[in-house]
Specification:
Blueprint (H helix, E strand, L loop, with lengths): L2 H5 L5 H18 L24 E7 L3 H7 L9 E7 L2 H9 L5 E5 L2 H7 L4 E8 L6 E5 L14 E4 L4 H13 L7 E4 L2 H9 L5 E4 L3 H8 L2 E6 L7 E7 H5 L1 H23 L1 H12 L3 H10 L3 E3 L3 H16 L18 H4 L20
Parallel strand pairs: 1-2, 1-3, 6-7, 6-8
Antiparallel strand pairs: 3-10, 4-10, 4-11, 5-8, 5-9
């Protein structure tokens, strides 16, 4: 456990209890008990790491990191073992990470904020943005809802603590509708699709590839997207325990570099990526191809600008009483891995000073 990180973060009991309430039932479904740390034999007497003896435990979502890496050919020569564990969305993945069951996992822009509000044991170590076009609010084709303002008094399905949750909140704010003015149905994507298709909810806030699935398979109509509203960030987040473990950290340097290369590859090989994405998710190829066309990937280093954007999101959740008190998101981000993912140095490196989390050796 990263003792320094824990002692420099304020304890927020109210936020912790809220996040625990959101994720407790989901954690029971993960089946991911036990520690993910156990690579002691990979560290040689001189401090070097034998990657062939390392096992990296990675949290994933269907059609996520594993599928992307495989499609890009980045799983062909991995020098360490990767043990994959699948989750329905970012919030339960981060709960398992906080429990010590994972080393690293990929999530959207909002789950880290809910985990940070609960004083979680993690840091975001790699970032990219897909833009906001794939984040959408959809309604049935024959619905009389034509704008976000029309959602007042309506039932809306959303996965609480997900990127869709923030998009919904931001869209309501822009339309002058209070979050308390809608009836929120906290549902995971599969359950939300079933509820939407059966007419049990009036609208659904979702992300890709589910947006395209809803449009093409459930006859959904998009009333708004997150373009120019949300930052579209996706992150690889690592546990404090993994970042304190030299063997896991050595593997993480390689892993996030592979993720970054695969993300760049997906931007120029949309059809090839859509085919693999389809195979992994079971969604029709036309769904995943439509999704890839809406997601314009761009690698970004973790910088002050990224952190400030996430801080603004966290403050918005607090202002709307979806998180109980103000907190600083900065301790949950590190630029230590920037040079492995974008070639950018850690902030302060040019002046000879280490970044706030220490320079990477």
């Amino acid at each position: 456990m990263n003792q320094h990180a824990r002692t420099t973060r304020r304890t927020r009991p109210g936020a912790r209890s809220l996040a625990a309430a959101i994720a407790a039932s989901l954690l029971a479904l993960t089946g991911c008990g036990g520690s993910a740390i156990g690579n002691e034999e990979a560290v040689n007497d001189d401090g070097s790491v034998d990657l062939e003896k390392v096992t990296l435990v990675v949290g994933d979502q269907k059609g996520g990191s594993q599928a992307l890496l495989r499609a890009a050919g980045e799983l062909d020569d991995v020098p360490y073992e990767i043990q994959w564990k699948e989750f329905t969305s970012g919030p339960p993945l981060l709960e398992a990470l906080d429990a010590g069951s994972l080393h690293v996992g990929g999530v959207g822009n909002t789950p880290p904020l809910f985990a940070a509000a609960a004083n979680g044991n993690f840091q975001a170590i790699q970032a990219a943005t897909y833009g906001g076009t794939g984040d959408a609010i959809v309604v049935p084709q024959d619905s009389d809802i034509t704008s976000v303002k029309d959602l007042k008094g309506k039932s809306v399905a959303v996965t609480q603590g997900s990127s869709a949750n923030y998009n919904l909140l931001a869209q309501l704010d822009e339309a002058g509708v209070g979050y308390q003015d809608i009836e929120v149905q906290n549902l995971q994507p599969a359950d939300a699709l079933a509820a939407f298709d059966a007419g049990h909810v009036d609208a659904w806030a979702i992300w890709e590839p589910f947006t395209s699935q809803a449009e093409q398979e459930a006859g959904a109509r998009v009333i708004t997207t997150g373009e120019d509203v949300v930052n579209g960030y996706v992150f690889q987040v690592a546990s404090d325990e993994a970042l304190d473990d030299p063997a896991a950290t050595a593997a993480l340097k390689d892993y996030v570099a592979r993720i970054a290369r695969a993300q760049k590859w997906s931007a120029t090989h949309r059809k090839a990526w859509a085919r693999v994405w389809s195979e992994e998710t079971g969604l029709p190829y036309r769904n995943t191809l439509a999704a890839t066309r809406k997601r314009k990937i761009e690698l970004v280093p973790i910088t002050k600008e990224v952190i400030e954007s996430e801080q603004q999101m966290a403050d918005t959740f607090v202002d709307n009483e979806l998180l109980p008190e103000q907190f600083d998101v900065a301790p949950f981000f590190t630029d230590r891995f920037n040079r492995f993912t974008t070639g950018a140095p850690a902030e302060g490196a040019s002046s000879g000073n280490a970044s706030s989390e220490g320079a990477e050796g």
